Amino acid sequence: MGHVRYDFSGESVLVTGASRGIGRAVAEAFALAGADVTVLSSGKGIHDAAREIAAKAGRPVRAIECDITDAAAVKSALAGLGRIDVLVNNAGLERITPLLDPDECVEETFRRITDINTNGTFYVTRNAVPHMREGGRIVVTASIWSRVAVPEFSAYITSKHANLGFTRVMAKELGTKGIRVNAVCPGWVRTEAAMLSLKNMSLRTGRGEDDLLAEIVGAQVLPGLLEPEDLAAPYLFLASDGAKDMTGQALMLDRGEVMA
Q1: Which GO terms describe its molecular function (predicted)?
Q2: What number does CATH give the domain 12-187+227-252?
């Protein structure tokens, strides 16, 4: 089987939500491909992630601790950056928000999810684009649930549909500036967020986690649960010259669960 190698030497890459999971794997892949990487997340763990990625890649990695729902904080955090060649909008939150659950915390969770996934993505993009020149690339982490829907994930699915719409609007708006915008739509990936959702689904349905996971994987054409590292290559592809004629598109990366 052939192998693809990417070289991002001399390019500046900003990855949000990079303290763990998909964002961490994507940031590491860019660093290993020679990019000057900046990672951003709201928790202090982002500093550890940056140090670990730097040690593995053998090159410096900058960490920014910032809550992307705070527009002023985002503006301040990104003001200190120089040129941005690639922006990966990956930060997000996934929780169950059952419409018929009377608990008021559901409304609070709904607001928090949409604030991070939708508003935060907008704030980061709005403040990153002035740092981008012609040839810039933006990759958004959407979801297969930006194409379909399942019960009790109203906030997450609403926000991911919004992410896909925002990707298309950005592609139209920024195309004249020579900036390409595409999305990756992951299926079920073994991340902390996904496994928490699986646990909550188990608690609410009374079904075992293994049973639910077997059903999820069984809906795929290709077997096995995706790992965060499996997602990295498509992000590098979309940021490479191999995708120079692609914009406003969404890559489904779900082992054939949703074909759309």
Answers
A1: oxidoreductase activity
A2: 3.40.50.720
Q: How far is CA 202 from CA 185, 213, 224, in A?
A: 24, 10, 20
Q: Shortest CA distance to 87 belongs to which of 64, 109, 69, 70?
A: 64
* Whether 14 contacts 243, CB under 8 Å: no
- Rounded distance between C-alpha atoms, residue 90 and residue 119, angstroms: 13
Compute and round to an integer the Cα radius of gyration of the chain.
Answer: 18
156 catalytic per annotation: yes
Q: Is the pTM of this model over 0.90?
A: yes
69 and 60 in contact (C-beta within 8 Å)? no
Strand partners, 39: 15, 63
The candidate with the shortest Cα–Cα distance to 12, out of 90, 89, 84, 77, is 84
Q: In angstroms, rounded to a whole number, what is the distance separating the alpha carbons of residues 49 and 62?
A: 10
pLDDT tens track for 88-104: 999 999 999 999 999 99
Q: How far apart are CA 142 and CA 231, in angstroms?
A: 12
CATH 3.40.50.720 residue window(s) in the chain:
12-187+227-252
Model pLDDT for residues 34-74, shown as the tens digit of each residue: 999 999 999 999 999 999 999 999 999 999 999 999 999 99
Other residues' Cβ atoms within 10 Å of the Cβ of residue 182: 25
Q: Which letter, b or e, does each residue of 29-54 get, where b requires 16 or more Cβ atoms within 10 Å of its Cβ?
A: bbbbbebbbbbbbbeeebeebbeebb
Q: Are 247 and 171 in contact (CB under 8 A)?
A: yes
